[in-house]
Amino acid sequence: MSGLAELLKRRELLANLTARELKLRYRGSALGVFWSLLIPLFMALIYVVFLRLLGGRGVPLADVIIGVFAWQFTVQCVNSGLTSITGNANLVKKVAFPRLILPVSSTLANAASYLIGLAVQIPLVAILSHIDGKTFDAAVVFWPAVFGIHLLFNLSLAFLLSALNVYMRDIQHLVGLALSAWFFVSPVMYNLDLVLRHAGEHPWIPQLFMLNPMAVILTGYRACLFGGVDFPWSLSSSASLLLVLLLFAVSYRAFQKLQKDFADLL
């Protein structure tokens, strides 16, 4: 039975584990699910204030808001996916069910939080864009496609890291370092225009930059929302999208192969 068929057959368990993930995340907190709105909003405001101090008024505020919310979605998927197997050791050792459900449920819970955050992100981006003389573009209809690619990419990372963390616990520490480095080479606090301006006479730099799937995803969100911002179709951006599909196939097969020893190693 394929993984998708297993998930469909156990969809009630998947829904329950996803709901449990959301409940545990906000259990005991006074503001509950509103933290899904407040955390990326506070982070964006902090970054905007510091960037304004360092870079003046040329900082693209709406771009920063889109970047921070989307980046937080990936970081949360990586962190919760990393411990989705090791954090449910008793469940894995005592109950027979498709282990695939655990990283999938943690990713879906983070996707729900990200979608809830749109209630703050979209109006805020609309206001900031209006101040800068920008309007939403008809290309916004492609936003679900960008979100689908983003979700698939995050799920791939959750599959791969959750399985590797069972075999090598040092992965947890390496992932923290990797996320810090990855943040600066992804256009979270800046946009592609900044990279193009600084690349100058070295056109290979933007091409190399767009091989990063997060660069393609974040630029895709901005291209969907802002009028006059075209998605930079090129060999490297197309290769990056193919890389997302390849990563999903590889991480899924790796998870299925490694899961047979989970119960013994936990």
Q: What does this 3D model show about the protein?
A:
The protein has 266 residues and is mainly alpha-helical. 74% of the residues lie in helices and 0% in strands. The chain has 13 helices and no strands. It has helices spanning 3-9, 11-26, 35-55, 61-82, 89-94, 101-131, 143-167, 171-184, 192-199, 204-209, 213-225, 235-258, 262-265. The model has no long low-confidence stretch (mean pLDDT 86).
List the SSEs and their pairings:
Layout: H1 3-9, H2 11-26, H3 35-55, H4 61-82, H5 89-94, H6 101-131, H7 143-167, H8 171-184, H9 192-199, H10 204-209, H11 213-225, H12 235-258, H13 262-265
Overall average pLDDT: 86
Q: Work out the helix count.
A: 13
- Count of DSSP E strands? 0
Percent helix range:
over 70%
Low-confidence stretches: none
Strand content: under 5%
Rg from Cα: 19 Å
- Kindly, what is the distance between the CA atoms of the first and last residues, rounded to a whole number of angstroms? 25 Å
In sequence order, what are the helices and strands, one letter per element?
Answer: HHHHHHHHHHHHH
Structural class: mainly alpha
Largest sheet, strands/sense/barrel: none
Judging from the principal axes of the Cα atoms, what is the shape? Answer: globular
